[in-house]
Amino acid sequence: MAALHRRNVIAGLAGLTAFGLGAPAVWGNQLAKKSIAKPTPPPRPKLVFLDPGHGGKDPGALGVRGTKEKVVVMAIARELQRELQAGGRYRVMLTRASDSFVALRERVARAQAAKADLFLSLHADAHPDSDVRGASVYTLSEEASDREAAALAARENRADAVVSGMKLANQSDDVARTLVAMSQRGTVNDSRRLAETIVRTFGRNGVRLLPRTHRQAGFAVLTSPDIPAALVELGYLSNPQDEKLLTVRQHQAALARALRASVDAHFGSGIATRKA
Ligand SMILES: [Zn+2]
Questions:
Q1: How far is the CA of 5 from the centre of ligand 1 (A)?
Q2: CA distances (Å), 185 to each of 9, 35, 190, 275, in order?
Q3: Cβ–Cβ under 8 Å, residues 120 and 229
Q4: Which domains does the chain have, with CATH numbers?
Q5: Residue 275 phi/psi, 5° resolution?
Q6: Rounded to the nearest whole angstrom, what is the distance from the C-alpha of residue 234 to the centroid of ligand 1?
Q7: How far are the Cα atoms of 35, 39, 263, 273 from residue 43, in angstroms, in the given order?
Protein backbone atom coordinates (compact mmCIF):
# COMPACT_ATOMS: atom_id res chain seq x y z
CA MET A 1 0.00 0.00 0.00
CA ALA A 2 1.37 3.44 -0.84
CA ALA A 3 2.31 5.51 2.20
CA LEU A 4 -0.21 8.24 1.43
CA HIS A 5 -3.05 5.79 0.97
CA ARG A 6 -2.09 4.04 4.18
CA ARG A 7 -2.14 7.34 6.05
CA ASN A 8 -5.65 8.03 4.80
CA VAL A 9 -6.87 4.60 5.81
CA ILE A 10 -5.36 4.98 9.24
CA ALA A 11 -6.68 8.52 9.67
CA GLY A 12 -10.11 7.26 8.62
CA LEU A 13 -9.99 4.39 11.06
CA ALA A 14 -9.06 6.68 13.94
CA GLY A 15 -11.57 9.31 12.88
CA LEU A 16 -14.42 6.81 12.86
CA THR A 17 -13.42 5.48 16.23
CA ALA A 18 -12.95 8.91 17.77
CA PHE A 19 -16.14 10.53 16.53
CA GLY A 20 -18.50 7.60 16.00
CA LEU A 21 -19.92 6.42 12.71
CA GLY A 22 -22.72 9.05 12.68
CA ALA A 23 -20.43 12.08 12.88
CA PRO A 24 -18.43 13.24 9.85
CA ALA A 25 -14.99 11.66 9.91
CA VAL A 26 -11.91 13.85 9.64
CA TRP A 27 -10.77 12.38 6.34
CA GLY A 28 -14.24 12.73 4.81
CA ASN A 29 -14.06 16.49 5.32
CA GLN A 30 -10.60 16.64 3.85
CA LEU A 31 -11.68 14.73 0.76
CA ALA A 32 -14.74 16.95 0.31
CA LYS A 33 -12.62 20.10 0.55
CA LYS A 34 -10.13 18.68 -1.93
CA SER A 35 -12.78 17.98 -4.56
CA ILE A 36 -13.93 21.64 -4.74
CA ALA A 37 -10.44 23.15 -4.50
CA LYS A 38 -9.01 24.21 -7.89
CA PRO A 39 -6.64 24.41 -9.59
CA THR A 40 -4.73 21.39 -8.26
CA PRO A 41 -1.51 22.61 -6.63
CA PRO A 42 1.71 20.93 -7.77
CA PRO A 43 2.64 17.93 -5.58
CA ARG A 44 4.56 18.88 -2.44
CA PRO A 45 8.25 18.02 -2.86
CA LYS A 46 9.05 14.83 -0.94
CA LEU A 47 11.05 15.34 2.23
CA VAL A 48 14.13 13.11 2.27
CA PHE A 49 15.84 12.83 5.64
CA LEU A 50 19.54 12.02 5.45
CA ASP A 51 21.27 10.61 8.49
CA PRO A 52 25.08 10.83 8.43
CA GLY A 53 26.04 8.23 11.07
CA HIS A 54 27.92 9.00 14.30
CA GLY A 55 29.41 12.46 14.95
CA GLY A 56 31.00 14.48 17.76
CA LYS A 57 32.49 12.24 20.47
CA ASP A 58 31.52 9.15 18.41
CA PRO A 59 33.84 8.84 15.36
CA GLY A 60 32.29 5.54 14.17
CA ALA A 61 34.57 3.09 12.38
CA LEU A 62 38.24 4.01 11.93
CA GLY A 63 40.15 3.27 8.74
CA VAL A 64 43.56 1.68 8.55
CA ARG A 65 44.94 5.06 7.48
CA GLY A 66 42.98 6.87 10.18
CA THR A 67 39.90 7.86 8.16
CA LYS A 68 36.93 8.53 10.42
CA GLU A 69 33.51 7.17 9.45
CA LYS A 70 31.72 10.27 10.78
CA VAL A 71 33.71 12.44 8.34
CA VAL A 72 33.26 10.43 5.13
CA VAL A 73 29.54 9.81 5.68
CA MET A 74 29.00 13.54 6.23
CA ALA A 75 30.81 14.34 2.97
CA ILE A 76 28.64 11.84 1.07
CA ALA A 77 25.46 13.08 2.78
CA ARG A 78 26.27 16.66 1.69
CA GLU A 79 26.94 15.48 -1.87
CA LEU A 80 23.65 13.55 -1.89
CA GLN A 81 21.83 16.58 -0.49
CA ARG A 82 23.11 18.67 -3.42
CA GLU A 83 22.13 15.93 -5.91
CA LEU A 84 18.60 15.66 -4.54
CA GLN A 85 18.00 19.39 -4.27
CA ALA A 86 19.32 20.09 -7.78
CA GLY A 87 16.28 18.52 -9.46
CA GLY A 88 13.81 20.57 -7.38
CA ARG A 89 11.76 17.45 -6.60
CA TYR A 90 12.91 17.00 -3.03
CA ARG A 91 13.39 18.86 0.18
CA VAL A 92 16.32 17.52 2.18
CA MET A 93 17.02 17.65 5.90
CA LEU A 94 19.90 16.15 7.86
CA THR A 95 19.75 14.55 11.31
CA ARG A 96 22.98 16.36 12.09
CA ALA A 97 24.33 19.35 10.18
CA SER A 98 27.72 19.47 11.90
CA ASP A 99 30.22 17.23 13.66
CA SER A 100 27.96 16.80 16.67
CA PHE A 101 26.72 13.83 18.67
CA VAL A 102 23.03 13.02 18.17
CA ALA A 103 21.49 9.98 19.91
CA LEU A 104 19.91 7.36 17.63
CA ARG A 105 16.36 7.77 18.94
CA GLU A 106 16.71 11.54 18.61
CA ARG A 107 17.53 11.08 14.91
CA VAL A 108 14.30 9.14 14.41
CA ALA A 109 12.36 11.72 16.42
CA ARG A 110 13.69 14.56 14.25
CA ALA A 111 12.58 12.80 11.06
CA GLN A 112 9.14 12.11 12.52
CA ALA A 113 8.68 15.65 13.77
CA ALA A 114 9.44 16.91 10.24
CA LYS A 115 7.09 14.29 8.69
CA ALA A 116 9.82 12.91 6.44
CA ASP A 117 8.82 10.76 3.47
CA LEU A 118 12.03 8.76 3.45
CA PHE A 119 14.92 8.16 5.85
CA LEU A 120 18.39 7.17 4.66
CA SER A 121 21.10 6.46 7.20
CA LEU A 122 24.64 6.55 5.82
CA HIS A 123 27.49 4.55 7.33
CA ALA A 124 30.80 2.88 6.56
CA ASP A 125 31.60 -0.48 8.10
CA ALA A 126 34.61 -2.20 9.69
CA HIS A 127 35.47 -5.90 9.85
CA PRO A 128 38.27 -7.85 11.57
CA ASP A 129 39.09 -9.40 8.16
CA SER A 130 40.60 -6.57 6.12
CA ASP A 131 39.79 -8.39 2.84
CA VAL A 132 36.07 -7.87 3.35
CA ARG A 133 34.81 -4.99 1.22
CA GLY A 134 31.71 -3.71 -0.58
CA ALA A 135 28.45 -1.95 0.23
CA SER A 136 25.40 -3.40 1.97
CA VAL A 137 21.90 -2.16 2.79
CA TYR A 138 19.97 -2.84 5.98
CA THR A 139 16.29 -2.63 6.84
CA LEU A 140 14.59 -3.28 10.15
CA SER A 141 14.14 -6.99 10.90
CA GLU A 142 10.70 -8.50 11.51
CA GLU A 143 11.44 -9.25 15.19
CA ALA A 144 12.80 -5.77 15.83
CA SER A 145 9.79 -4.30 14.06
CA ASP A 146 7.33 -6.34 16.17
CA ARG A 147 9.21 -5.40 19.33
CA GLU A 148 9.02 -1.71 18.41
CA ALA A 149 5.33 -1.94 17.59
CA ALA A 150 4.56 -3.55 20.95
CA ALA A 151 6.68 -1.00 22.81
CA LEU A 152 5.10 1.93 21.00
CA ALA A 153 1.56 0.68 21.56
CA ALA A 154 2.26 0.09 25.28
CA ARG A 155 0.41 2.61 27.40
CA GLU A 156 3.48 4.09 29.11
CA ASN A 157 5.11 4.98 25.79
CA ARG A 158 2.09 6.56 24.23
CA ALA A 159 2.17 10.03 25.76
CA ASP A 160 3.92 11.86 22.91
CA ALA A 161 3.73 9.21 20.21
CA VAL A 162 2.21 10.24 16.91
CA VAL A 163 1.73 7.54 14.28
CA SER A 164 0.57 8.50 10.79
CA GLY A 165 -0.52 11.87 12.14
CA MET A 166 -2.64 10.40 14.97
CA LYS A 167 -1.81 10.94 18.63
CA LEU A 168 -1.68 7.50 20.24
CA ALA A 169 -2.42 8.96 23.67
CA ASN A 170 -5.99 9.66 22.55
CA GLN A 171 -6.68 6.11 21.37
CA SER A 172 -7.93 3.00 23.12
CA ASP A 173 -5.55 0.03 23.54
CA ASP A 174 -7.06 -1.81 20.57
CA VAL A 175 -6.97 1.18 18.25
CA ALA A 176 -3.40 2.07 19.28
CA ARG A 177 -2.24 -1.48 18.57
CA THR A 178 -4.06 -1.54 15.22
CA LEU A 179 -2.68 1.85 14.18
CA VAL A 180 0.88 0.90 14.97
CA ALA A 181 0.62 -2.57 13.39
CA MET A 182 -0.93 -1.29 10.15
CA SER A 183 1.52 1.52 9.82
CA GLN A 184 4.54 -0.59 10.67
CA ARG A 185 3.65 -3.42 8.29
CA GLY A 186 3.34 -1.05 5.36
CA THR A 187 6.51 0.77 6.33
CA VAL A 188 8.53 -2.45 6.58
CA ASN A 189 7.39 -3.42 3.06
CA ASP A 190 8.20 0.04 1.67
CA SER A 191 11.61 -0.07 3.37
CA ARG A 192 12.41 -3.46 1.84
CA ARG A 193 11.40 -2.19 -1.58
CA LEU A 194 13.67 0.81 -1.06
CA ALA A 195 16.59 -1.41 -0.04
CA GLU A 196 16.16 -3.67 -3.08
CA THR A 197 16.07 -0.57 -5.28
CA ILE A 198 19.34 0.69 -3.78
CA VAL A 199 21.01 -2.71 -4.27
CA ARG A 200 19.88 -2.83 -7.93
CA THR A 201 20.95 0.75 -8.61
CA PHE A 202 24.35 0.23 -6.95
CA GLY A 203 24.82 -2.92 -9.05
CA ARG A 204 23.96 -1.09 -12.26
CA ASN A 205 26.36 1.74 -11.42
CA GLY A 206 29.35 -0.44 -10.66
CA VAL A 207 29.32 -0.01 -6.88
CA ARG A 208 30.96 -3.08 -5.35
CA LEU A 209 28.49 -5.01 -3.17
CA LEU A 210 28.76 -7.55 -0.38
CA PRO A 211 27.18 -10.96 -1.07
CA ARG A 212 23.57 -11.09 0.28
CA THR A 213 23.62 -7.33 0.04
CA HIS A 214 20.22 -6.59 1.55
CA ARG A 215 20.27 -7.58 5.22
CA GLN A 216 17.95 -7.16 8.15
CA ALA A 217 18.86 -6.05 11.65
CA GLY A 218 17.53 -4.30 14.74
CA PHE A 219 19.11 -0.88 14.21
CA ALA A 220 17.45 1.69 16.50
CA VAL A 221 17.78 4.37 13.84
CA LEU A 222 15.41 2.43 11.53
CA THR A 223 12.51 2.20 13.96
CA SER A 224 10.18 4.94 12.76
CA PRO A 225 6.73 3.34 12.42
CA ASP A 226 5.65 5.40 9.42
CA ILE A 227 8.75 6.46 7.47
CA PRO A 228 10.34 3.97 5.03
CA ALA A 229 13.97 3.71 6.10
CA ALA A 230 17.19 2.03 5.08
CA LEU A 231 20.72 2.07 6.44
CA VAL A 232 23.46 1.96 3.80
CA GLU A 233 26.94 0.74 4.68
CA LEU A 234 28.87 2.36 1.84
CA GLY A 235 31.99 0.20 2.15
CA TYR A 236 34.56 -1.02 4.69
CA LEU A 237 37.03 1.36 6.28
CA SER A 238 38.92 -1.73 7.47
CA ASN A 239 39.70 -2.54 3.83
CA PRO A 240 42.51 -0.36 2.36
CA GLN A 241 40.92 -0.06 -1.13
CA ASP A 242 37.48 0.78 0.22
CA GLU A 243 38.98 3.27 2.66
CA LYS A 244 40.82 5.04 -0.14
CA LEU A 245 37.72 5.10 -2.38
CA LEU A 246 35.50 6.49 0.38
CA THR A 247 37.77 9.51 0.74
CA VAL A 248 38.00 10.22 -3.01
CA ARG A 249 35.72 13.03 -4.14
CA GLN A 250 34.73 11.32 -7.44
CA HIS A 251 33.76 8.11 -5.67
CA GLN A 252 31.76 10.04 -3.06
CA ALA A 253 29.94 11.79 -5.91
CA ALA A 254 29.31 8.49 -7.72
CA LEU A 255 27.80 6.99 -4.56
CA ALA A 256 25.62 10.10 -4.12
CA ARG A 257 24.42 9.87 -7.74
CA ALA A 258 23.53 6.18 -7.33
CA LEU A 259 21.64 6.96 -4.11
CA ARG A 260 19.79 9.83 -5.81
CA ALA A 261 18.80 7.49 -8.63
CA SER A 262 17.54 5.01 -6.00
CA VAL A 263 15.42 7.71 -4.36
CA ASP A 264 14.04 8.69 -7.80
CA ALA A 265 13.17 5.06 -8.52
CA HIS A 266 11.57 4.65 -5.09
CA PHE A 267 9.22 7.58 -5.61
CA GLY A 268 8.03 6.59 -9.04
CA SER A 269 8.85 5.36 -12.49
CA GLY A 270 8.36 8.87 -13.92
CA ILE A 271 11.63 10.01 -12.38
CA ALA A 272 13.28 6.59 -12.29
CA THR A 273 14.57 6.96 -15.82
CA ARG A 274 16.98 9.74 -14.87
CA LYS A 275 20.52 8.50 -15.25
CA ALA A 276 22.64 8.01 -12.18
ZN1 LIG B 1 28.37 3.42 11.42
A1: 33
A2: 13, 30, 9, 31
A3: yes
A4: 45-272 (3.40.630.40)
A5: -75, 145
A6: 10
A7: 15, 12, 16, 19
Distance 221 CA to ligand 1 centre (A): 11
How many whole angstroms from 22 Cα to the centroid of ligand 1? 51
**209 pairs with which residues across the strands?**
135
Q: What is the pLDDT of residues 214-228, one digit of tens each?
A: 998 888 889 888 899
Residue partners of 146: CB distance under 8 A and separation at least 6: none
Using DSSP bridges, classify how beta strands 46-52 and 90-94 pair: parallel, antiparallel or unpaired: parallel
Give 148 Cα–ligand 1 centroid separation in angstroms.
21
Q: How far is the CA of 219 from the centre of ligand 1 (A)?
A: 11
The pTM is what?
A: 0.79
> pLDDT digit string (tens) for 57-91?
999 999 989 999 999 999 999 999 999 999 889 99
Q: How far is CA 8 from the centre of its chain?
A: 20
Q: For residue 138, how far is its CA from the centre of ligand 1 (angstroms)?
A: 12
